[in-house]
Design goal:
Chain lengths: 280, 198
């Protein structure tokens, strides 16, 4: 709904007009119905501002761009604040069904390279939801991770931990109609990095999600419950304290498959519908 | 009750074997649209390229470099784009492209010049490409837009109008005279690209 500035007399008339004419702003940002003419005399000014379809990124949930403790942000974080713009069709459109291009449901990273990967087998499963708790169906979830020794199958990872010829560490899956995803993998190892003296990244799995729109994109990292390195990691700690636990998968005995693999649950919440505008 | 958003984290330096994929930066050809072909299950169809989905598209190349606050190239950034087709619509076709920067910080997309899409109220936006920049040292995605410096409708664009005039140039890709456009994405410092809160 657009934001309208109305005279007091106009407000009631506007409500009537809403029920009569169902004034709506369509997904293309244009009014789907016009105001009836008699109402025009009550309106002191009308300013149609593009309504937000999606809630904005919550600064109480996300890291700031600049983090003193995470040194790589020093030259890469913008000095200007981002300029807030209305959400137009460009921002609110997106792929709503990836199932045409990718497999739905589950993926197995333990066997992608031929033989069986070395390490502690894990199952990671969860739901992709929006802030209103609604499932995000048919959306692409991409994951990648280091191997059990903490080494990525990546030319630029020069740490001398062993590579596993049977583990690539990349996978992708599309959520089902209930927003569920699952994959099998091996528990990644921690690894050192050059950010500061004796710095170690906690074990983590990278996640990339799209959601229904350009605006709902999310790239994040999943950590493991009980890992003492989380509290020492500048990247995990860049998240506001109140939201940090959202990145920690919890061990789940129900998901754990007997005599096979440990289960971890990791639900992901993408930007949901904008809060209902209130009349000023 | 609303659930809390899952926080952003950096894409890190080691995404290259998981996210970029052959054809991912060419929106004019069929592609798995974000999927690595070697990981795709048999029987799944690639999405058609923009040129196949729409008529009258003008093929263009959009390229540039991602540079940091010291003017150094960013060789481990991931640039993603999302754009309308030649008619300004978003139905069918790919609309999405993904390119990892090279050692010199360069990115390059082959695409179709987008049409005009609706803006707030009854406005029409100038042709533009939405851009997301991720990388090591970027804890959150940076969102910007690429406009075309030679486009006659720039003055009518409601989003550009929100940008201080002296910074608008950071969003305008210059024509290279050979069907290509060039725009550097400057993360910080002099000439810093305008980034948007969407």
């Amino acid at each position: 709904m657009g934001l309208l500035t109305l005279g007091k007399a106009g407000l009631g008339a506007f409500r009537q007009a809403l029920s009569a004419a169902e004034l709506r702003v369509g997904p293309d940002g244009r009014p789907a119905a016009r105001l009836p003419c008699p109402l025009a005399s009550h309106i002191l000014s009308i300013r149609m501002i593009e309504p937000d379809l999606f809630a904005r990124e919550d600064d109480a949930a996300h890291p700031a761009s600049l983090s003193e403790a995470y040194r790589s942000t020093a030259l890469r974080s913008p000095g200007h604040r981002p300029i807030r713009i209305p959400q137009t069709l460009t921002e609110t459109s997106g792929f709503t069904d990836w199932s045409q291009a990718c497999a739905v449901g589950s993926a197995d990273l333990t066997r992608t390279a031929g033989g069986e990967a070395i390490g502690q087998r894990i199952l990671v499963a969860g739901r992709v939801l929006d802030e209103a708790g609604r499932p995000v169906p048919r959306t692409l979830v991409e994951v990648w991770q280091a191997n059990a020794a903490g080494r990525y199958a990546h030319a630029r990872d020069q740490w001398d931990a062993p590579l596993d010829p049977n583990f690539t560490g990349a996978g992708q899956v599309v959520t089902d109609d209930d927003g569920r995803y699952a994959f099998e993998s091996i528990r990644p190892g921690a690894y050192p990095w050059g950010n500061h003296e004796n710095a170690w990244r906690p074990a983590h799995i990278h996640f990339s999600l799209f959601g229904p729109a350009f605006a709902t994109r999310l790239v994040t990292q999943m950590y493991f419950e009980g890992d003492p390195l989380i509290a020492l990691d500048p990247i995990a700690q860049s998240v506001p304290a109140a939201a940090r636990d959202r990145l920690v998968a919890r061990f789940d005995l129900g998901l754990t498959r007997p005599s096979y693999a440990l289960g971890y649950v990791f639900d992901i919440v993408l930007r949901g519908p904008a809060a209902t505008p209130t009349e000023a | 009750m609303r659930l809390g958003q899952t926080p952003w984290q950096t894409v890190g330096p080691f995404f290259h074997y998981a996210l970029p994929h052959p054809g991912g930066a060419d929106l004019t050809a069929p592609s798995e649209a974000g999927a690595r072909p070697d990981l795709v299950a048999p029987g799944h169809a690639p999405l058609p390229g923009l040129s196949a989905a729409t008529a009258g598209g003008e093929a263009i190349v959009v390229q540039g470099r991602v540079v940091d606050g010291a003017g150094a190239p960013v060789p481990d950034a991931l640039v993603e784009i999302w754009q309308a087709d030649a008619q300004g619509g978003f139905a069918g076709g790919r609309h999405f492209g993904r390119c990892a920067t090279g050692d010199d910080g360069s990115y390059l997309f082959r695409t179709i010049r987008p049409g005009r899409t609706p803006g707030p109220g009854n406005s029409l936006q100038a042709p533009h490409i939405a851009v997301g920049v991720m990388g090591r040292g970027l804890l959150r995605r940076l969102v910007t837009r690429i406009y075309f410096a030679d486009d006659p409708s720039l003055d009518e664009d409601p989003i550009l109008a929100l940008v201080p005039p002296e910074r608008r140039g950071t969003l305008l890709a210059a024509a290279d005279g050979a069907g290509g456009y060039r725009l550097d994405l400057v993360l910080q410092g002099p000439g810093e690209t305008v980034f948007f809160d969407i």
